[in-house]
């Protein structure tokens, strides 16, 4: 029971208040510009009926613009597919709750197939089905205001996000590679694919970004562990050493006698000035 209750406690955000303000201002601009343009072209009623989905999209495009659900193809594809699904359901079932429910179902399935899942797209389908006299009455022409809103919002996000130093759209990340033992002990791409298949749920981050994050985590952990290691833990103490007066023959005899591969070379003050090693 305690575990269930704890699951309702919100997780801390890994962003700063300055980023919250940046996203909020951007969303405000995106909604205002999209609605204003739509109002000028198609009238205030059409603009208001599409305002809900546009507002939901604005949250994704400005607050979590690096997410897979907020990329340009997700916005454009989901708006178009959801509108077409709504029109098809209206043709079959009329402006009914059944039509709205099936339209959302089709929108989710088709956007998943087309790799453009975007939650506000489902709201587009509902808006078209439920607004009998404003949107659904336009028939196929309803695609114009729908895509106009998507285009205006997307264009605003492209300009605003990049002007405020947030790269958008998110380019596919190159996974960091780690040389040495970590590359052997760490994971490979096939391991990540298998893990995602085992989870079997939607993850709002691209596979490449997730792989890059995990590789960076491994690299940071490796560096931290190395920094925590005391030199005394990894060096071996030797009671024998060489001086500059010893010859290479003396060094080889001493190495053989000790069964060692390394011997330090000391100066007159017993300070290490080099090492004789049988290996590189």
Integer tally of domains: 3
> SSE string, helix = H, strand = E?
HHHHHHHHHHHHEHEE
Q: Return Rg in Å.
A: 31 Å
Uncertain runs with pLDDT below 50, 5 residues or more? 175-184
Mean pLDDT: 84
| β-strand number | 3
Shape: elongated
Structural class: mainly alpha
Please report the distance between the alpha carbons of the first and last residues. 60 Å
Largest beta-sheet characterization? 3 strands, mixed
**What is the beta-strand fraction?**
under 5%
Secondary structure: helix percent: 55-70%
The number of helical segments is 13
Strand order in the largest sheet: 1-2-3
Q: What descriptors fit this protein?
A:
single chain; 280 residues; mainly alpha; 3 domains; three-stranded mixed sheet; 13 helices; 5% strand
Please characterize this protein's 3D structure.
The chain has 280 residues and is mainly alpha-helical. The chain folds into three domains: 18-163, no CATH class; 181-229; 237-277, no CATH class. It is 62% helix and 5% strand. The chain is built from 13 helices and three strands. It has helices at 2-6, 17-42, 44-49, 51-63, 72-93, 97-113, 120-130, 143-163, 181-185, 189-199, 207-228, 231-234, 248-258; strands at 242-243, 262-266, 272-277. The protein has a three-stranded mixed sheet, with no helix packed on it. Helix 13 (248-258) links the parallel strand 1 (242-243) and strand 2. The longest helix has 26 residues, at 17-42. The chain is elongated, with a radius of gyration of 31 Å. Mean pLDDT is 84; it is low at 175-184.
């Amino acid at each position: 029971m305690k575990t269930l209750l704890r699951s309702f406690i919100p997780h801390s955000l890994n962003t700063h208040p300055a980023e919250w303000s940046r996203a909020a201002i951007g969303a405000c601009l995106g909604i205002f510009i999209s609605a204003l343009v739509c109002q000028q072209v198609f009238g205030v009623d059409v603009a208001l009926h599409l305002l809900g989905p546009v507002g939901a999209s604005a949250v994704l495009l400005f607050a979590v613009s690096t997410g897979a659900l907020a990329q340009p193809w997700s916005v454009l594809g989901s708006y178009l597919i959801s509108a077409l699904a709504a029109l098809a359901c209206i043709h079959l079932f009329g402006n009914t709750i059944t039509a709205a429910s099936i339209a959302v179902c089709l929108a989710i399935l088709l956007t998943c197939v087309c790799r453009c899942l975007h939650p506000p797209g489902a709201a587009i389908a509902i808006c078209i089905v439920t607004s009998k006299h404003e949107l659904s009455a336009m028939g196929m022409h309803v695609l114009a205001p729908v895509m106009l809103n998507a285009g205006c919002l997307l264009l605003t996000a492209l300009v605003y996000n990049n002007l405020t130093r947030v790269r958008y759209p998110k380019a596919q990340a190159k996974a960091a590679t780690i040389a040495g033992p970590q590359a052997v002990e760490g994971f490979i791409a096939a391991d990540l694919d298998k893990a995602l298949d085992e989870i079997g749920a939607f993850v709002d981050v691209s596979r490449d970004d997730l792989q890059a994050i995990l590789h960076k985590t491994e690299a940071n952990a490796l560096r931290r562990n190395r920094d925590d290691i005391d030199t005394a833990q990894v060096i071996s103490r030797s009671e024998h050493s060489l001086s500059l007066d010893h010859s290479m023959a003396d060094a080889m005899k001493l190495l053989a006698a000790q069964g060692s591969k390394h011997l330090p070379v000391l100066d007159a003050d017993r300070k290490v000035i080099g090492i004789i090693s049988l290996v590189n």
